[in-house]
Amino acid sequence: MAGARRQVNALARAVVQALTHPKLAVAAVRQRGLRGMWSWLRRSFKTGFAHQAEYAALLLARDTPHDLLQACSWFAAAIAPADAETYLVHLRAGPRLYVRRASAKSDLWLLSVTFHTTQWLAEYEVHGQTVLDIGANLGDTAVYFGLRGARVISFEPSPILVALARRNCALNGVAADIRACGIGDCRRSLWLRSTGRLADAASSVEFPDVHTNERTEFAGGAREVVEVVGLGEVLAETGEVFLAKINCEGCEYPALASLSRDQLRLVRHYAIDCHADPEVIAARLREAGFDVQKPKPGLPLFADRRDDEVAGPRSG
Length: 316
Description:
- This protein is 39% helix and 22% strand.
- By secondary structure, it is an alpha/beta fold.
- The protein folds into three domains: 1-60, no CATH class; 64-117, no CATH class; 119-305, Rossmann fold, CATH 3.40.50.150.
- Strands 6-5-4-11-12-14-13 form a seven-stranded mixed sheet, with helices on both faces. The chain has a four-stranded mixed sheet with strand order 7-10-8-9.
């Protein structure tokens, strides 16, 4: 009941803000692009707008710590200036993380998803296990898994986000290995495209002749050349991996397609946010001997390796 009331209040705030400050609504659309907004609306209808009212209220809030906290009070206990570039956010779940002032709304929403909304992360018993965090962004999932005792190896192509992820891990006492590169099919330099002038959760590496991201529109956004390494090269270094969390805005397709069956099976569990047709990846993993759950709206594709070594579907 409390959750439903909170969502109704958030939706009411969003409607009032959109009607009284139409420029904010236009800016919200510009931030995600038309394709991104359309994808968001489709997922919203499928999930019953479970958390979309809060997201709308956040997008339409003014860019002040007070107003941002009002829109995020359900997962953030405090938001305060840290320096000229960042805010320090105290989460109700416990951790503290820095977010960028220039992209505070998208950064804050990412924190809400990782530390409040997303329940599937807690299903994995990661203590003492190796976790590949592909798509580190500002270090939210690296902090999440690191605080639970995992050995975390993270990959993030944006230099700005790499610095922020390392800063957030240090703030929370997490010794994650944050690597300044994206993941793909092989080692090379590629374009990283963003919806705005800064890299964010929607930024996507552009792979030549491969359409890997059907969610986001990048017209007019920033571009920068970044380094990409092959997932096979990473697995040759790490060996057995307990969990590969993959949310890299499309890199999942060339990365997984480049692996042999034996390489795919070096990972016990996959949690993959698919940005195009999930069945392409699901079929590949089934052929490699994984039990694959049909993706539900708003959730990743989950795959668990079938063998006698795994005690349970999400345990070591």
